[in-house]
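Notebook entry, structure prediction.
Reason for the run: the old model in the group folder had no record of what sequence produced it. Starting over properly, with the input documented here first.
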Amino acid sequence: MAFTEKFGSALSGPQADPGFVRALDDLVAMGRQGHKSNSPFFNPSNDWLISQMRIFQDFDTPKKDELLREYQEITKQSADLNSEGRAGLRVWPDTVVRLDTGGLGFFSQLGVARRPDLTQYFIDGFPRNRDALAFNEANQTLFKEVFPYITQLMGRSFAVGDTVVQTDRQIGDIPDRSFHARQLLFGTDYPQLPYMWRQLTFDLPEPALAMSPDILEVSVPKWLEALEMPQELKDRIVEAGLTRLIFKAPTRGLSLHLGFDYLGEHKMGPLSIAMFLVKQAEGLALQAALSMARVRNLEGNLINTALVTTGPSLHGKSTLTIMIELAQSKLSNLLELPTDPDEGIYPMNDDIILLQPLVEPVQASKENKDISVAYGIDGTENNLYAVPFGLTRESDPITYDVLRGSTGEMNSQETLENVPFDPTTGTPDFLQNPVRNMRMVLSRSRLLARKGVAHLAKYFTNGALDDTAHVPMGNIDRVLWQGVMRQNTVVPPLVRLTSETYVRALMYGEAVQTGAAVGAIGRPYVEYFSDPFIIGLEDDNANQMYSILQNLSQGGLSQEYYMFNTGGLGADRNEEASGTHYRKIDRELTLMLQEALLRGAVKFEEDPVLGVAVAVAIVNRDGEEILSLRDEWLPREIYGEDEYQRRVQELKRKRYYGDGPDDKAGILRYTKVTDEIFDLDDIPTPSNERELSWLLSFYWHIDQACNSLAELAAHLTEGERPTDQLLVNLTGKYRDGLARGLQEDSWDPELMLSLGIKN
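New structure, fully documented this time:
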């Protein structure tokens, strides 16, 4: 649904200051110039970066004692914050730690989580995100003075070949669908940022290193000290509350980071720009894990499946990607399946994937049917940036061995961020998580080797590649589009969706707060498409996702859609994972259901209340139920029929309308979403004027949801009049509301007629 920028529209950005635009363009031009290739700061080696690190074990005893005293203070502060349900601010002082494996541990000093609340966007030629912060006129006026200081320091550094560490990498592993990203880090105090970032990205072909990049990340962690700005300008920055800022100019390919040293923020900078570029090219990016599965179904046929698992951090994506094992699994034992070396799950990506249009559609033949695939499914990162909290060899031997190595063969390349450790031994402690956001860089090559699936790449690519982070679209039999959520305990462990209900599930964005973002740990929240960094109108994500799914289906590619509840069932309230009937969904059940899906061993039954098919049993090749989910794992049985219906209706009302006008949970606020994704019959009857106004705002597709009918009437020219039949159906919804207690509040009949509603 196209957006035409209009003055005064809620979707328009602030007016652009010409002086600011010139200063911005100068900064970007200088960054694209980069260092001369003979500078030691031009793509330095890992050894050079390590040589710049201040490593705890290399200090003399007095300095170590000083750092240990500071560590004790940090620990006490974290304990106090944790007792209040908040995350600690730091794990360790401003040094690097050499781990007992020989690897390295790094510790953020300027924040330990991504900060969408400190991220602002220069809205230039695209509609604004409904929730993101636009870089306003006042900020533009201020930063047209700031940017020249950054540009000048870059210029001086490039001229003499020092100060700014340049790192050029590739996002994605397939040449014609990848991006050249350049990181420019001011100073040598934070060498861990390029050190870790290059582990997460792909090598760039050497001839491209000195070329102008597609994406530019400029990072100045200690920017108020590094830039030679007058005190008066610094004072104005402080007064404006911009001492820490992530500034993004997507149309210029720029992500600028001022006052940050957490890798998660720095890796997301280039990724967010790549996501924008893909979206502009009629593709889409998703926060999702990506893997390939080669599994025999119950009929004994080997099926190649692309698994796309969407969802927020710490909700189970990695479990379904890394931890699933087929040989001697609980399900394979139940089905009496022999170990098959041709089977396996091949992990590819754990964060952002790109759905990109292909230059030429892939033509293939599957089951005597010709298919044409017009989109690729591409991973963006070479290794996995994951959370190791709770990791032990007993609980997860695969991940533990990949990260740390096995006994007698330690992984000297182990890389950790914000993980506590024993200062006397250098041994990390994965059971303590004071900042609620510890991280590891997990080697994908080591993971493939440990799982014994590295050889599968040749099967998937017909022998063309030894390794791949993108799906070979011509050699897959189907795509499983999956999601993970753990907020609503009225949702069963596994449900089967349609393309429409799957897109709506992404719009719901239901999650539980972790340390990867700002907020109270463990509390429910909503993040549309599980992505707080969407650039441009969020509504476009739903429209484009639906369009891509339809395109792939029309081309003949087999697709299935599912949602896993990886949380629990039967809680008294969604806000608390507790209650007399509450039961946690254990990891083994989730893994068993994932494998059963791949083998075609899940029995589904329609649930008319929830409006989807729910998994009720696992079956064998004869269709006999070998594991029933009905009594123990279906919310209908846990709550009882009446209470279940009440809770589902309550959930639907929150999903569509939210609890109030400012509640992000109400997806009717995304008024530019195409009608085809929504089912009017699924939307609860409006109970008040605000809900009725939201409903009509959506189907009129005005710029934003209005909270009153009079407000809506004043904005009708922004949208498009619904069809006569749709207006008849909306009138029926309105009359149903009146019958259920909706108060008319003396609404003017002419006003209602202008909205297409007949009393």
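Summary: The radius of gyration is 27 Å.
The old model has been moved to the deprecated folder.
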